[in-house]
Amino acid sequence: MRDHKIFQSMEKFVQTPYVQDLIERALAYVRAGFPVHFRGPAGTGKTTLAMYLAQQIGRQVVLIHGNDDFSPTDLVGGLQGYKMSKIVDNFIHSVLKTEEQLNLRWQDACITEAVRNGYTLIYDEFTRSKPEANNVLLSILGEKVLEMPIVRKGERYLQVHPHFTAIFTSNPEEYAGVYKTQDALRDRMITIDLNHFDEETEIAITVAKSGMPVEKAERVVRIVRSFREKGKYEFTPTVRASIAIAKVIHLQENLDAGDPFFKQVFIDILTSETCGTVTIGKTNGNAKGSTARVVEQLFDRYYS
């Protein structure tokens, strides 16, 4: 659930004007004392941007992932130390010995630890946690104070460390398993909405992640981008589709575009369940083509 190390150098992090603009804006907000929230569909680089931004901040990082089972205790902390054991006599089954130990002590959870020590908190997919669990963030981001539970003896209010920084990511609210963000919480952060990368960035990411040469990756990316623009999808193909196609093809030595397998890779990946079903405009009540046929047409256009 958490990671207490400063992230190692992200050597393959792609630097393009599009990405640099996002990071510079986010750093400006952080330096002004505001939490940053990267919001966008899956595959738009939210988590990677959050990690890179945390690296630029340069302090220890706590990473947590939103979870529907979270309670405030999971984020703030609670009492721990109860232990019970049972011993059954192998010869006299009616004999049962039990031993109980009760030595409760307070244990800080991830957010309290970050607030106390001035760490950078990355709360990935925070809207997958219930709003009532995330309510603990309101006073942290607003009044810069964390109210501790009553069971925490002595310290009732914890002042937020001046170096504490929060970075959030989330998917759109229409995604399954996502809760609507409280207005009060959203009002305390600056949201940067992300969409699909521009072509230059998508090519650079595909090259970095697959090892495919630029001139070959360009065609892969352009087919994926053209397919994305052809119709409406349950799940829109992202740069991940470009990376997957490029990786598979690049690992096949001496594979030519005329090989049926070459084209089939595009069809399999772009028509997989992760991309959903394409809806093309209709003429005389008949669909212009199936998803696979759309991919074939694009493939033939770019590889003919």
From TrEMBL:
Pfam assignment, any one: AAA_5
Signal peptide residue numbers: none
Catalytic activity, as annotated: ATP + H2O = ADP + phosphate + H(+)
Keywords attached to this entry: ATP-binding, Cytoplasm, Gas vesicle, Hydrolase, Nucleotide-binding
InterPro entries, A to Z: AAA+_ATPase, ATPase_dyneun-rel_AAA, CbbQ/NirQ/NorQ/GpvN, Gas-vesicle_GvpN, P-loop_NTPase
Major location (coarse): cytoplasm
GO process annotations (BP): gas vesicle organization
Gene3D superfamilies, alphabetized: P-loop containing nucleotide triphosphate hydrolases
Domain AAA+ ATPase: 32-200
GO function terms (MF aspect): ATP binding; ATP hydrolysis activity
Subcellular location as annotated: Cytoplasm; Gas vesicle
CDD domains (UniProt xref): AAA
GO CC entries: cytoplasm; gas vesicle
Family to which the UniProt record says this protein belongs: Belongs to the CbbQ/NirQ/NorQ/GpvN family.
Protein name listed in UniProt: Gas vesicle protein GvpN
Organism: Desulforudis audaxviator (strain MP104C)
